[in-house]
Amino acid sequence: MSCTQRAAQCMALTAVMATTLVSAQTRQQKTFACGPKPMVSIINEYGPIVVHAGAGNQVVLTYVVHSDKVEVDTDQNGDRITVESHVLTPTGEDAKRVDYELLVPAGASVILHSNSGPISAENLRGEISMRGDTANMDLRNINDGHIHLETLSGTINLQEVHDVHVEANTVGGDILMKNVSGPLVNVSSNQGKIYYDGDFGGSGSYKLTSHSGDIEANIPATVSMDVTAKSDKGQVDDDFPLQPKTHSTFTPEKGHSFMGIAGRAASSVWLHTFSGRIRLKQRK
Amino acid sequence: MLNCEQFEDLLPEVIDGGAWSAEQRAHAQNCKSCTSLVNDLRNIAQESKYLAESDEPSPRVWQELRKSLVAEGLIRKPAKHGRLMDFFFAPRWRPILVPVGAVAALAIVFLAYQSDRAPVNAPGTSAKVGVAAGDQSNVALLDDEDVQLLNQLSMDSPAVRASYEDSLKNVNLYIRDAKEVARKNPGNDVAQDALMQAYKEKTMVYEMAANRSAH
């Protein structure tokens, strides 16, 4: 067989495969009438889930199924809406994939599970729960409510999150926070890096912990906090001017821990890692 | 010339006060690890002589402690010993029992040192994966429940199993390190908090695996 003939055969095969793939993808949309604070849950084995705040008291679900080996089951009971990807026959990851996009009232509560992710949500005010083995998670412009995030190796990215109770846990991924504040912010990464850029505002309690990952906080001169930082085996760098605390049961160990207050010490900040490095920097 | 394994086989003779052979002496002079082991074992044997002479707290302290433990239900009336047990645990035997116990402890340390130099289990078995000699930073212990969980996840895909295995090893390392700090600092809130966080991570991994199986 000549090279030209082989090339022609490859192109024909590629065209057939592409056509098959496109035809197997099915896009559907469903609308659910609801109140201002519905509860929506999506269980998806593979594929992204994207959630935005929409207008009106309704939930608009758009999904793309990538093969005929998976179907989407939906159910509504009052303001509780459940969506689940149902694998019909055992198959590879690509064939199990379903892409979801959700428009919900801003006050909706969402439970989003996708093993592969990514999972993202923005402009919401309700309760948000995300879980995924390797899912990267991205949340922006979230106010009030409660965020609960769990992933084994995904990266967690929080931006403009205010007055929110945040609990985020990842084993191998990084946690990146920009302008995150709330009454309680507890984030933990076993191995990954934790990076915080904000003012530890809201008179909250902030706890950033890791096993071996580094922790870095980049804060303005106007911050108001009572901070304690400790690395059992690693190094700590305090590049922010702190006032000494008058009463404390904690005894700092040079090079491994420090503590102090800034401003009126409105927020409590606890930075702890077993063997990572901690750095507290003043934002320029 | 002896190797380390042969040297260790002959150690009990040296520790018991026996004379060094020329080969043993030559190996000890050239091997820091074996020399260090000999010194440690000799120190333990030496210190055990003084154990019987240490001061004990007053009887009143023991009585108060016993009252507290009984009140909490942690100890009950001891079962009656047989006559043989009464014979061996009579006060006149205590000065002998302590050094005997020390020698037993010495034997346990020696056997534990031997087992640390044994090869790591072959991959693919369902037995525990131990810490490889000289490489404690990389491999953490997987307990039986972890192995069982991973075997169940293997039915899913190798990539899933690998992801969970990696996570379990990391959280177990965290638990191990947090336990060590808590052990050295009993009653320290920071140490206890870190240990709780480590266990919380492990719980999260198990919950995620269970959630995966449920769907």
Molecular structure report:
The complex is a heterodimer of chains A (284) and B (215). Chain A has 284 residues and is mainly β. Chain A folds into two domains: 25-108, no CATH class; 136-284, no CATH class. Chain A is built from two helices and 24 strands. Chain A has a twelve-stranded mixed β-sheet with strand order 1-4-7-3-9-11-13-15-17-19-24-21. Chain A has a twelve-stranded mixed β-sheet with strand order 5-6-2-8-10-12-14-16-18-23-20-22, with no helix packed on it. Mean pLDDT of chain B is 71; it is low at 116-139. In chain B, helix 4 runs antiparallel to helix 7 (94-116), helix 8 packs antiparallel against helix 9 (158-184) and helix 9 packs antiparallel against helix 10. Chain B has ten helices and no strands. Chain B has two domains: 1-57 and 91-118, no CATH class; 144-214. With 215 residues, chain B is mainly alpha-helical. The longest helix of chain B has 27 residues, at 158-184. Chain B has helices at residues 4-9, 11-15, 22-30, 32-48, 59-71, 83-88, 94-116, 144-154, 158-184, 189-214. Helix content of chain B is 67%, strand content 0%.
Q: Could you write a compact summary of the structure shown?
A:
Chain A has 284 residues and is mostly beta strands. Chain A has helices spanning 3-24, 93-96; strands spanning 26-33, 39-44, 49-53, 58-65, 70-77, 80-87, 98-104, 109-114, 119-122, 127-132, 137-143, 146-151, 156-162, 165-170, 175-180, 184-189, 194-197, 205-210, 215-219, 225-231, 236-239, 257-262, 267-273, 278-282. In chain B, helix 4 runs antiparallel to helix 7 (94-116), helix 8 (144-154) runs antiparallel to helix 9 (158-184) and helix 9 packs antiparallel against helix 10.
- Based on the structure, what is the oligomeric state of the protein chains? heterodimer
Kindly report how far apart the N and C termini of chain B lie: 63 Å
What is the averaged pLDDT score of chain B? 71
Largest sheet of chain B: none
Measured on Cα atoms, how large is the radius of gyration of chain A?
23 Å
Number of DSSP strand runs of chain B: 0
For the CA atoms, what is the radius of gyration of chain B? 24 Å
Name the chain pair with the biggest interface and residue counts per chain.
A-B, 26 and 27 residues
The best one-word shape of chain A is: globular
Beta-strand level of the residues of chain A, as a percent range? over 45%
Give the low-pLDDT segments of chain B: 116-139
Number of domains of chain A: 2
Number of domains of chain B: 2
Q: What sort of overall outline of chain B do the alpha carbons produce when their principal axes are compared?
A: flat
Please give the count of helices of chain B. Answer: 10
Share of residues in helices of chain A = under 10%
